[in-house]
Amino acid sequence: MTAILLTGVGKRYDIVSAFAQHATVVAADPNPLAPAQYAAHHRVAVPLITDPGYVPALRALCDEHGVGAIVPLTDLDIETLARAREEGLLPEALVPSARTATATYDKYEAHLELQRLGLPSPPTVLPGEEAPSYPVMVKPRRGSGAESIHRASDAGEAAFFCRYLREKDVMVQRLMDGPEFSIDCLSDPDGRCVNAIPRSMLESRGGESIKGTVLDDPELVDLGRRVVEALGARGPCTVQVFRDHEIGLGITDVNTRFGGAFPAPMYAALEGRTYPELIVRMAAGERVEPHAGEYRAGVTFTRYYWQLELDAEMRPTGRDIVEPPGPPAPR
């Protein structure tokens, strides 16, 4: 069976367990209490990403388990994996080029890159530069989880928040006046877009989408495809976009990993075409043909929290607080 190495698994139990249905999964995380590792076949505590031993530890896991693809579940090691891939140390890493990884991790650099590629990005300036219009959003260039983002109605408020957040290295971006969407994309190892599935953002908390509906929107499908192919993305990628009432579509973030609403493309995928299944097939050497726009629209997801009990040896007990969770499904 093909093996997949998932790094920085954290709380993404849904992703790890979905891969575990189709492949041998190795979960790597430095935190021994990372809950998602318990959905994998093998769980390994690896050094911190900043440790010189991080890449060698992943190399050893690939060799030991016959790993066909490395898929990061966090932003933090994408650049490290990209550099290791280009150096021939981790050719299994399903990540973009180091240049693209660096640009997309810095939201201002991402804005410049999108402009260079002719893709729509809202007007964005750095502190000290005059914004072309107000209101604006002052936000960290390398932030995540919607942390430290502030609305400013005028130049005075923008200057205040830039000073307030000066240690976070911020930027100032037009406040998009319209609905927000995310496009969950998947690209093959050659950078071809395999699929792009747009969804609404009905509710988010801390940057995590907890409610959303998959949309039949050819314009968003085409935008997602153009973005990932222009950037040379490999593997999963999430494009966040607003449809402003004045300027139209504007891309506010590109995450070259699975997004915070993994259930949406899972529910929307046609038979045999969930993203984990396609990644496993590609890891086994299969060339998957692009099918952008082929999915089930109209499905809605809503997320909740659950937990695991571990014994004194940090092993899952298999016990649950109710059995089975929740009421029985209607017949």
Overview of this protein structure:
The chain is of the alpha+beta class and 331 residues long. A hairpin with a 3-residue loop joins strand 13 and strand 14. The protein has three domains: 3-95, Rossmann fold; 96-122 and 176-331, 2-Layer Sandwich (D-amino Acid Aminotransferase, Chain A, domain 1), CATH 3.30.470.20; 125-174, no CATH class. The chain has nine helices and 15 strands. The two termini are 35 Å apart. The strands form four sheets. The protein has a four-stranded parallel sheet, sandwiched between helices.
List the helices and strands and how they pair.
Layout: E1 3-7, H1 13-20, E2 24-28, E3 42-44, H2 54-65, E4 67-72, H3 78-86, H4 98-105, H5 107-116, E5 124-125, E6 136-140, E7 150-152, H6 155-164, E8 170-174, E9 180-187, E10 193-200, E11 203-205, E12 208-213, H7 218-231, E13 235-244, E14 248-255, H8 263-268, H9 275-283, E15 300-302
Parallel strand pairs: 1-2, 1-4, 2-3
Antiparallel strand pairs: 5-8, 6-7, 6-8, 9-10, 9-13, 11-12, 12-15, 13-14
Helix pairs in contact: 3-4, 4-5
Mean pLDDT: 94
Overall number of domains: 3
The main sheet comes to:
4 strands, parallel
Give the oligomeric state.
Answer: single chain
Q: Please tally the helical runs, counting DSSP H or I stretches of 4 or more residues.
A: 9
- Structural class, from secondary structure content? alpha+beta
Note the beta-strand portion.
Answer: 15-25%
- Name given to the CATH homologous superfamily of the largest domain: ATP-grasp fold, B domain
Q: What is the strand tally?
A: 15
| CATH C-level category of the largest domain | Alpha Beta
- For the record, give the distance between the C-alpha atoms at the N and C termini, rounded to a whole number: 35 Å
Proper CATH architecture of the largest domain:
2-Layer Sandwich
C-alpha-based Rg, rounded = 20 Å
CATH topology of the largest domain: D-amino Acid Aminotransferase, Chain A, domain 1
Question: Low-confidence runs (pLDDT<50, min 5 residues)?
Answer: none
Overall geometric form: globular
